[in-house]
Protein 1
Amino acid sequence: KAGVTQTPRYLIKTRGQQVTLSCSPISGHRSVSWYQQTPGQGLQFLFEYFSETQRNKGNFPGRFSGRQFSNSRSEMNVSTLELGDSALYLCASSLAQGSGKKETQYFGPGTRLLVL
Amino acid sequence: GQQLNQSPQSMFIQEGEDVSMNCTSSSIFNTWLWYKQDPGEGPVLLIALYKAGELTSNGRLTAQFGITRKDSFLNISASIPSDVGIYFCAGFSNSGYALNFGKGTSLLVTP
């Protein structure tokens, strides 16, 4: 079974631009979560989607948004980029939110975003 | 989300030594997960724990779900150079949906 895939792997943008990152979950997984990883803050939860609906959201500004398609693929968008948005953006998929094994999350390789 | 307390922050050991790291939370967790992350890559799941007291092994790795449900431990036996990386604990609390993470333990193994 193929793992979680993320595209692109690397991205360079300038301040003020916007960016869209893509995530394809493991086949059969219906929940997709997004995380931002920086050296200073570690791994921080952005949001989680299930059945095309955002179910949970972390403490990030409205410039960070996402969506999920009917095939469970997900995209996240960051508008009006700031230097501090430079980070590794990770996507994780799970069968579903619930208890036990269903909620175990499997991560993709990440997209490294650099904002200049 | 809730920040987990993971220790030690870093370890520098010789090949063949055993390694122990642990993670604690201030609230009860119903799932504990241990991941390893190599530079520039995403975290890879090593061991998942779902019941208090559960002890699970994956090769040379062994992890336990603490009986208080507020802690977890990961042990690596007979370390080898490819064990180098950052190890993260993570878990779901009863009241939350987001995966909470520790700050990671950076492991360096010298031949």
Protein 2
Amino acid sequence: EAQVTQNPRYLITVTGKKLTVTCSQNMNHEYMSWYRQDPGLGLRQIYYSMNVEVTDKGDVPEGYKVSRKEKRNFPLILESPSPNQTSLYFCASSLGTSGGDTQYFGPGTRLTVL
Amino acid sequence: GENVEQHPSTLSVQEGDSAVIKCTYSDSASNYFPWYKQELGKRPQLIIDIRSNVGEKKDQRIAVTLNKTAKHFSLHITETQPEDSAVYFCAAYNNNDMRFGAGTRLTVKP
């Protein structure tokens, strides 16, 4: 089944404890992206990747890192999480390199930073 | 950068009525405008999209219109059903940058 998966789905952590949220897609998509969703703010792009080893900042990159060592995986890293990073996170992928076509979202990761 | 505004933030309609959600964007270079539906606790899913070289697109009960001059686009849902109840997001895309509106919570009352 073609899909985007994320892990973990739920995470409660404490300020400063490094964490990684994994994202994987099995559709051979070129473009992958991370969003955070907060009430009243919609979806805001954190980072995106057009291809292996090619990543760039989105709208709200501060406090986050990403890597794209393989086409299928695009992990989101929070080196030192803070409470303002408490949010619902979505990974997405799309076929082309630009992101300007249908984006397929993962199931979401709800992160709470205490 | 691009700024997308979406209205209304909440919309309640009677089953069978039409629903219209409007979005405006600021960057005239934006060229792709998708709409996503997000049911409670679920992931966003694309329901319809339009590119800047087209003024209107229809898919059964759903249609999207684009006015490039005025920089606004709208989602139209006809003959609404309770299963249309969800949060709807518009987005505008240009040059690797996808900006979403804040969302509209649509409630369809049976």
